[in-house]
Design a protein that fits this description.
about 210 residues, Rhomboid-like fold, two-stranded antiparallel ribbon, transmembrane helix, transmembrane, serine-type endopeptidase activity, Rhomboid-like_sf
């Protein structure tokens, strides 16, 4: 199993998202703001900060999270190649918005002023594990020291590492992403037929 041809051929939306995530993570890191990107109860309900809503969707707060996150985003370009850039753009928008709403709801229910969530595209990444589980078949089975693995195992392990990277701070956004992916899978409001048209990623990114 692999993500198809190497590079971002036929995956301009994925390329744009990966580049945006990497650049914003580096920029915030250089400015020493990486640890302050995660959403908190105060950021939403006491002192609303729109910039944090946007930053928390793209920028990771640490280098290990960035590495695993970009690897998974890069692998999941397979879905853009399967359903096309327009439908994949709709999947991204749905996953990001719905998972963000779930995160805000969770913060409202917790009402803990000290609770802070991990930043980064957790919503999109973990929403992508839903079609990965259901739609990507196993192509290789291997055995290592008596233990059985498949080629999908290593993607799950990378996801688990990211899921547990910041413990409670990353587990909650991961769960919100899985919920968003499940709602997309259930075709809520016919979302799986939605398309985002007139996106000129091919021109902008040279694809």
């Amino acid at each position: 199993m692999n993500g198809g041809p190497s590079g971002f051929n036929n995956a301009p939306v994925t390329k744009a998202f990966v580049v945006a995530s990497a650049v914003l993570t580096l920029l915030f890191g250089i400015r020493g703001m990486s640890k302050n990107l995660g959403l908190s109860y105060q950021d939403i309900f006491r002192w609303p900060r729109l910039w944090k809503l946007i930053a928390s969707v793209f920028a990771f707060s640490s280098t290990p999270e960035l590495m695993f996150g970009l690897y998974l985003l890069y692998y999941f370009r397979v879905f853009e190649r399967q359903i096309g850039s327009n439908k994949y753009s709709a999947f991204i928008l749905f996953s990001v918005i719905v998972s963000l709403l779930f995160e805000i709801l969770a913060l409202a229910l917790l009402r803990d002023p000290t609770a802070t969530l991990a930043s980064g595209p957790y919503g999109l990444i973990f929403a992508s594990f839903v079609p990965f589980y259901f739609d990507i078949p196993v192509s290789t089975r291997i055995r290592i020291y008596g233990a059985h693995f498949t080629d999908k195992t290593f993607i799950y392990l990378a996801g688990l590492q990211l899921f547990l990277s910041s413990w409670k701070r990353s587990i909650l956004p991961g769960i919100c992403g899985i919920l968003a992916g499940s709602l997309y899978r259930l075709n809520l409001f016919g979302i799986r037929k939605a398309k985002v048209t007139h996106l000129y990623f091919s021109t902008i990114f040279g694809q």
